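Please go through the protein record below and see whether the fold suits the sequence. Record follows.
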Amino acid sequence: SMVNTVIEFEENRQIAWQSKLAGLWGQVLGGRIWRYELEPVGDGTLVRESWDISRDHQRLFLRHHKVVDATEANMGRTLDRINELVAPAS
């Protein structure tokens, strides 16, 4: 199982959390940071998702282009899904 710890929070602006494996494995595996930044734009909100591996114990592996490409594609799908859920119906 994973433990997610909120490490940054600014209401209506930003949230970031760090994910690690639970227990002792969390000391050697995991540590990446996921972040959503919200910016008011017109009548809506621009949402940026980022993935920070600078503190992850597996950062060398995570820099591999296949992992980066898969993560980028998954983040795009997540942002599309968020948009589907919160965008006003046209």
